[in-house]
């Protein structure tokens, strides 16, 4: 139990340049859409409205893509198990289902006893060219401090 009365859960999210890009790029495209609507307000016309609408749709698409691929991706480790939210789905693993944990090219790999593996992309920084060693060491420390110790 933590100081707030519940079980503590450790959470990792994509950080670094990928997270910054996930926030900045949609904002820049959104500013372009706002400029397009300001132009339409100042001199209404079908061409200005069409261009502003195009940029608005592009803003929505870019924001949705970055939310889906970067901002929602996370890894949670708690007493109830491991939850890896990746772009293509959410994987829930009990701590007893994990045979070992290794650092792979795309993040932490949780190897199951049946030979399958689950990769948590949240530790990978999404190929931002940064080292994953520090974040992986944090993950291992949390797993080793938990109720069951996992082999590496």
What does this structure look like?
- The protein has 152 residues and is α+β, with helices and mostly antiparallel strands.
- Helices cover 43% and strands 24% of the residues.
- A hairpin with a 2-residue loop joins strand 3 and strand 4.
- It is elongated.
- The chain starts with 9 loop residues before the first strand and ends in a 7-residue tail after the last helix.
Question: What's the gist of this structure?
Answer:
The chain has helices at residues 16-42, 46-71, 133-145; strands at residues 10-13, 74-78, 81-86, 89-93, 98-104, 107-112, 117-120.
Name the strands of the widest sheet in spatial order.
1-2-3-4
Mean pLDDT: 85
- Compute the separation of the termini in Å: 26 Å
Determine Rg (CA atoms, Å).
21 Å
- Helix and strand pattern: EHHEEEEEEH
* Percent of sequence in beta strands: 15-25%
- Unreliable parts: none
Indicate the percent of residues in helices.
Answer: 40-55%
Question: Which structural class fits the helix and strand makeup?
Answer: alpha+beta
Total of DSSP H or I helical runs spanning 4+ residues:
3
Query: Major β-sheet, in short?
Result: 4 strands, antiparallel
**Large-scale geometry:** elongated
**Strand runs, count:** 7
């Amino acid at each position: 139990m933590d100081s707030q009365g519940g079980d503590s859960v450790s959470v990792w999210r994509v950080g670094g340049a990928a997270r910054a890009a996930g926030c900045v790029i949609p904002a820049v495209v959104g500013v372009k859409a706002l400029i397009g609507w300001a132009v339409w307000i100042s001199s209404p016309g079908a061409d200005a409205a069409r261009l502003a609408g195009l940029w608005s749709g592009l803003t929505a698409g870019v924001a949705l893509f970055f939310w889906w691929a970067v901002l929602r991706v996370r890894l949670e480790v708690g007493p109830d198990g491991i939850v890896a939210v990746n772009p293509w789905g959410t994987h829930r693993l009990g701590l007893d289902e994990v045979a070992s944990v290794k650092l792979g090219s795309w993040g932490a790999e949780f190897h199951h006893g049946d030979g399958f593996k689950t990769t948590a992309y949240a530790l990978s920084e999404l190929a931002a060219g940064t080292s994953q060693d520090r974040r992986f060491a944090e993950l291992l420390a949390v797993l080793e401090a938990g109720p069951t110790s996992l082999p590496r």
